[in-house]
Amino acid sequence: MARPVRFAVPVVAAQGTALPLIICLHGLGGGIADITQLLSGGLAGLRSSYVVAAPQGASGGSWNVVGEPSLAPDVHLISSLIDFAEGFSNVDTTRVVIYGYSNGAALAHRLMIESGDRRIIAAVMESAQLNERQFRNGGFYTAGSDRAYSRVVPLATQTLARRRVMMISGSADSTIPAAGGESELVVDHLTGERLSFVSVTGSVLAYATAKDAAANISTRGDGAHGASLTYHSTVGGDVQVSCVIGPGLHRVRCASCQGCIGSGVNSVVDEASHLTPPDAT
User: Fold this and answer.
1) Which residues are paired to 117 by β-bridges?
2) Which of 39, 75, 126, 135 is deepest in the core (most CB within 10 A)?
3) At what angle do helices 103-114 and 74-85 cross, to 10 degrees?
4) Residue 84 to residues 70, 74, 134, 141, Cα–Cα distance (Å)
5) What average pLDDT score do residues 156-180 get?
6) pLDDT digits (tens, 9 = 90+) for 83-132
7) Over 50: is that where the pLDDT of 281 sits?
8) Are 95 and 71 in contact (CB under 8 A)?
9) Distances (CA, A) of 90 to 15, 64, 134, 275
């Protein structure tokens, strides 16, 4: 590995039991220490059920999505990290989940769209939905080496078709507004242009219809989390894509939301682990 990575290994895995791998991606300007802090807080529940890997973003702690300082090949980096973990018998690399916060969530979206790695079965994105370069006019686009997002991904070859996706967003987030549109703070570091985003509900719908054009939607509001949306596949009725729009700004951290990430990861892994892996591309 060309960059630092910190692993957290539960006792049961240290004794030889193979556990799923969750790769945690920090936000812009952050680092491994941010994930370490989360593992003592909102992500604490994951420490007993998963081997956790926290890589460091390049160029001051950024992930290469659109306009960040880093031009590093981060999609390839994640597959290389899984290759490394595959060498350990206590890591089940057939069940890899990506968790990302903010800029890390943006890379998680990029991985869902672009990565053909069959070992990645699910993703949980916190505080970042699809940006309008990744998804527009009804189609997903790949970044390309120039990050122009000019190449559309044909539905027939989308590896996300058999992956689970969960998004968690704050209803009062002004950095990446849950309702979509232009961000007040997120800019292309190369051009100075403000970036625009698809709404959370639009992002969920984009993934859901890519999986199943006739997907069904159910909604609820439980008072604590505000709106909760779940799209169900018409094939078997299993949960395909879900999101929670909770009270909060650019990080959903009310007392009722503490378990959102942990329960979300557990649910997507449980659902996705019973599926045929996505097709290689």
Assistant:
1) none
2) 126
3) 80
4) 23, 15, 29, 29
5) 78
6) 999 999 999 999 999 999 999 999 999 999 999 898 998 898 989 999 99
7) no
8) no
9) 8, 30, 35, 21
Residues 6+ apart with CB under 8 A from 162: 121, 211, 272, 275, 276, 277, 278, 279
Gap between the Cα atoms of 200 and 175, Å rounded: 13
Residue 220 has which token pair? 């609820």
Per-residue tokens: 210: 């890519």
Q: What angle do CA 60, 78, 197 make, to 5 degrees?
A: 65
pLDDT digits (tens, 9 = 90+) for 216-271: 666 655 444 445 556 554 444 455 677 777 666 776 554 445 555 566 666 666 66
* pLDDT exceeds 50 at position 280: no
Residue with tokens 């300082």: 69
Owner of token pair 């019973």? 274
Q: Report the alpha-carbon distance of residue 127 to residue 104 in Å, rounded.
A: 9
